[in-house]
Design brief:
By secondary structure, the protein is α+β, with helices and mostly antiparallel strands. It has helices at 20-26, 33-38, 46-53, 102-115, 163-172, 188-200, 220-223, 225-229, and strands at 4-8, 58-71, 74-86, 91-99, 118-119, 139-143, 146-151, 159-160, 177-182, 237-241. It is 28% helix and 28% strand. Helix 3 crosses helix 4 (102-115) and helix 5 packs parallel to helix 6 (188-200).
Length: 242
């Protein structure tokens, strides 16, 4: 049936709100998502990601699994959803959410995946010809017993991988990559998290091509400090009908 609920409503896409980064994005002071990553600003609202990557983002439910807690009255079953989100061009996120209902778990996992979106560094296997297509160097990620290693591959190789990392690597924008995995890879959650950690590690290496002197500039929080000092008026509550 038709139901309605009262939600905080904000005129942008839906709800960029009182958080500093959100205010700067909403008012056009942060123009690119790279500025957020450059200054390591916290992303606390999923609408920030929607604002920059909205139409390009695609999400995929990796798994929905029931988890149980033993109570006096028997078991209490909840559903755990794993969702990957990416623009197939250098940005990827992974979200995990547990809830009583499947739909709520998926919705929550999508929001958490957006909040965890990270930039992905791509590189070459050999000569620097054309666009970057593989991982810039060998990287590893670990979660639980699962260890995932990503190895650069020549152009045309494709993603040599199990189905779970293949989805994540494809969403991140890699075209060619060798992988190696050890541990209990049947535990899909840990397998996905280990792959995500390995992809995140691509920007953790300071390779010689990044040795040029860094020109430091003020962080947006510092630059627009007078603007952020002004009191922020929250939008009134509005009833949204579905």
């Amino acid at each position: 049936g038709v139901f309605s609920f009262v939600a905080w409503y904000c005129p942008l896409s839906s709800g960029i709100n009182a958080e500093y980064g959100g205010r700067l994005v909403k008012d056009g002071m942060i123009k690119k998502i790279e500025e957020i990553y450059l200054f390591s600003l916290p992303i606390k609202e999923a609408e920030i990601i929607d604002f920059f990557l909205g139409s390009k983002l695609k999400d995929e439910v990796l798994k929905i699994m029931p988890v149980q807690k033993q109570t006096r009255a028997g078991q209490r079953t909840r559903f755990k959803a794993f969702v990957a989100i990416g623009d197939y061009d250098g940005h990827i996120g992974l979200g995990v959410k547990c809830s009583k209902e499947v739909a709520t778990a998926i919705r929550g996992a999508i929001i958490l995946a957006k909040l965890s979106v990270i930039p992905v560094r791509r590189g070459y296997w050999g000569n620097k010809i054309g666009m970057p297509h593989t991982v810039p160097c060998k990287v590893t990620g670990k979660c639980g017993s699962v260890l995932v290693r990503l190895v650069p591959a020549p152009r045309g190789t494709g993603l040599v991988s199990a189905p779970v990392p293949k989805k994540l690597l494809n969403m991140a924008g890699f075209e060619d990559c060798y992988t190696c995995a050890t541990g209990q890879t049947a535990t899909l959650g840990n397998f996905a998290k280990a792959t995500f950690a390995a992809i995140a590690a691509t920007y953790a290496y300071l390779t010689p091509d990044m040795w040029s002197a860094t020109v430091f500039t003020n962080s947006p929080y510092q630059e627009y400090t007078d603007y952020l000092a002004k009191p922020f008026v929250k939008q009134p509550k509005k009833e949204v009908k579905y």
